[in-house]
Amino acid sequence: MNEQLLTGTLKINENNHLEIGGMDTAALAAKYGTPLYVYDVAQIRSKCRQFKAAFEKNDFSYQVAYASKAFSVLAIYQLIQEEGCSVDVVSGGELYTALKAGFPAEKIHFHGNNKTVAELTLALENKVGCIIVDNFYEIDLLNALTKERNQRVAVQLRTAPGINAHTHEYITTGQRDSKFGFDLENGQIDQAIQKVLENPLFDLIGVHCHIGSQIFETEAFTHTVDKMIGLLASWRDKYGYTAKVLNLGGGFGIRYTEADEPKEISDIIDAVCQEVVQKTGEYDYPVPEIWIEPGRSIVGDAGITLYETGSEKDIPGIRNYLAVDGGMSDNIRPALYDAAYTAVIANRATEPAEETYSIAGKCCESGDMLIWDIPLPKVNQKDILAVFSTGAYGYSMANNYNRIPRPAVVFVEDGEDALVVKRETYEDLIHLDQLI
What we know:
Layout lengths: L10 E2 L5 E3 L2 E2 H8 L3 E5 H17 L4 E6 L6 H9 L3 E4 L2 H9 L7 E3 L6 H9 L4 E4 L2 H14 L3 E8 L21 E2 L4 H10 L4 E7 L9 H22 L5 E3 L17 H19 L5 E4 L3 H4 L3 E13 L3 E6 L8 H5 L5 E3 L9 E6 L8 E8 L7 E4 L20 E6 L2 E6 L4 H5 L6
Parallel strand pairs: 4-20, 5-6, 5-13, 6-7, 7-8, 8-9, 9-10, 9-11, 11-12, 12-13, 15-17
Antiparallel strand pairs: 1-2, 2-3, 4-14, 14-15, 14-19, 16-19, 17-18, 20-21
């Protein structure tokens, strides 16, 4: 197996089993059942601290806001609060969960391209730290709500900066043809700032952008800095407005397979900070506070999913299918994005590969495939397959297709395990249903 995939506390123990957080994965599967999401808490803490340390080394004012759409449950909000980070939420449900976890409202940033009146009201009632305004419709809604409540609110304007980062078309968000934000090129963003500045209850603290996800090129981020500082300088000259905050979003890539080559966190932040200093110097513009929104890069490679192997279908000369007890109901990314993963037989981790398998899910869909053509040891029924780097957009995108209950979630740290999300039961599946 590729040692590069053994991030954080992942290692092979003396029993030739995969271990995470000091816990044997085969023992975790036996205790909690499969499929099972397992999170390395120490790895999550480390990622948060690396982002913060990088900004502090550059002597920058900053906020690291965990993009909680990557993984949103009570326990992760508690952990992020312990690490002194902010969070961003994109729905009333995420906001509600963060608040129920006791997360400080003033450190919550509220995103979304179609926030409802009820969601905005919830944000205002709880005095969230910032609302990132996405469109003219939202400006009008928020304008009416703040006046009705006579409540001042901090806002940022989200812009689409026209940068097409090298990533999958469905997770590229910074280009002009996007559902998110005000267009930078056609003048929409200038119309938006004028409307926002007209309302004295809006505290326009800065501007936001996000150019996509799973980005490996540092140049994509520095190019974004160039465009955004230029925009801020033009606003100063045209409207007499100086931004306190430049929010550069997230999108920092992680390693899913050997083909992925993510940059070190410190290298990206160093490059961003240096570019901010250079461009603000060119425009004689005050250095703003920098906000970023890492989600995947904080939890993605901190999570693994454990499955039990089941049926095999060998088609000689074509393919050998190996089925597991999960699939697109707990990881829809391969079906949605053609996302690539790699895996290991957790209870026989270093045994040499003997056969090539394609890992099939159990959903009644021919497209329910988790991994195509992976070399593994000869697999036995009821072996434990561990799929790496499933911490982001696994549980948060899990579903009940085919009435399959969603898996449990376990946190592990220093040889201790904690159940943070119970496994759904069949009764859970029908508890909202009504007979007629």
